[in-house]
Structure formats: C-alpha cells, structure tokens
Amino acid sequence: MKHQWPDSLLAKAVKIRLIALDVDGIMSDGKLYFSATGDELKAFNILDGLGLKQLMAAGITVAVITGRKSPLTEKRMRDLGIPHLMQGREDKKVALQELVSTMDISPEAIAYMGDDLPDLPALRFAGLGITVPNGYWLVQQHADYCTIARGGEGAVREACDLLLTAHGRLDAALAPYLEPEA
Prior knowledge:
Layout: H1 7-13, E1 18-21, E2 33-34, E3 40-41, H2 46-57, E4 61-65, H3 71-80, E5 84-86, H4 92-101, E6 110-113, H5 120-125, E7 128-131, H6 137-142, E8 145-146, H7 155-166, H8 170-174
Parallel strand pairs: 1-4, 1-6, 4-5, 6-7, 7-8
Antiparallel strand pairs: 2-3
Helix pairs in contact: 1-7, 2-7
C-alpha cells in the first residue's frame, strides 16, 4: 500500500539532499549474530537496498554512519554503491558535521535515520529526523517521522519512498517496473 504522508512532513522532506543512516537497528534488525567460531553475521533487507539505489539515481546522496566496525557493513555498502561510509564513529553528530562540511549542505537539507541514543544528537541536528517503531522511545519522541516498518524490515525503503515522493520522483522510480508487457 502506498503511504500518504502529511504535507508538513513532505515540506521538510523536499529540502533533503543527503540522507545519513545508522546500520544496526535501521538497515539491520539490530540483533548481533555470531557463529560458533565467533564470526559476525548480519542480515540486510533487500527492499532497503533497491530504495537506496533509487534515491541515489534521483540525485540524493546517501551516507552511512555507524558506531561499530564491520566488514559485512563495508561489503554491503560497497555492493550498493554508497559513497560515504563512516564506521567506528560513536559521536554520530560530529561524524555527520564532518561529512557535510565538505559537501556544502545545510542541516535543513539533511535527513538522519537512527534508532538509539547515540543517534539522537545527529537526528536532532538534521532537518529531518527519522526513526523506527522498534527504536528507543526517546529517539521516537524527537523524530519528525517514525516509519511503519521496523528496522531491518523495510524501514529504510519507506524513508526512501518518502523522500522520492517529496521530490516528485517516486513515480519515475517505479515506472520501469510498470511498463506494459510486450
């Protein structure tokens, strides 16, 4: 079902030129999985990946800022073509400010999506703060939007659709999949 967002939310979303995302709890379900040999396992939702590719094709920059360092995260972001990955960054607001200082982007043109307390300063700094229903209550309280989908279950895709809708680009992003059959 296609979402209907309030005009006030779309008014904020239309200004966005960069979305920065947390990983654990946003792009994954927030659980840490380890094999018997100690190898880390992580699941990423394929819906989110296509949504991020559609955003980048529409000219919106994507960045990932995470407190943990993970080769799995590095591989997934490389596979998606995400140009900005900052790992091992506990102070996500500082990381976000460092990133945008090189890009000439004002805070009102930034969306930040996170789910827990380390994300809160970055979420509050950004012009559009997005979280998930399985995120921490205080983060939900400060976010401009809480997705319907849970983290790791298509929440990033929902945020991508929000931004594409606000920019008038969702229909164009979906059109190739709706072409008449030959």
